[in-house]
Amino acid sequence: MARVDVIMPQMGESIAEGTLSRWIKKAGEEIKRDEPIFEISTDKVDAEIPAPVAGTLAEILVQEGETVAVQTVVARIETEVGATVPAAAQPVPEPATATAPPPVVIPAPVAAAAPMA
């Protein structure tokens, strides 16, 4: 068996901390990968946080109502030795908006005036 740390995720670039508002699972409970295990609240978002791996919620390190910094270990999951832990999700940068060059204005040719008789 191996233990995998569960961390307080960063929910946005400007978010430095979050409050663990509620444990959905209790210590000793079996959990599936991607199953919500706790809820967090930040100044910008409230979210359920999924388990990074399947296993048993072995240890709860942060209690409900506590505010902790991003990347703080909040719990540990006991899992099989061969279980794979997904890499931390990287924020996807928003595509840069291309600025179009100003349109080129070509004046229309002026017709020659017909001679008057």
List key phrases describing it.
OB fold (Dihydrolipoamide Acetyltransferase, E2P), mainly beta, 117 residues, four-stranded antiparallel β-sheet, single chain
Shape: elongated
The CATH architecture of the domain at 2-79 would be Beta Barrel
Let me know the average pLDDT.
81
Largest sheet report:
4 strands, antiparallel
Helical content (DSSP H or I, runs of 4+): under 10%
CATH superfamily of the domain at 2-79: RNA polymerase II/Efflux pump adaptor protein, barrel-sandwich hybrid domain
CATH class of the domain at 2-79: Mainly Beta
**Uncertain segments:** 87-97
CATH topology of the domain at 2-79: OB fold (Dihydrolipoamide Acetyltransferase, E2P)
Q: What would you report as the Rg, rounded to the nearest angstrom?
A: 28 Å
Helix count, DSSP H or I runs of 4 or more residues: 0
Strand order of the largest sheet: 1-8-6-3
Number of strands: 8
| Structure class | mainly beta
Return the string of H and E elements: EEEEEEEE
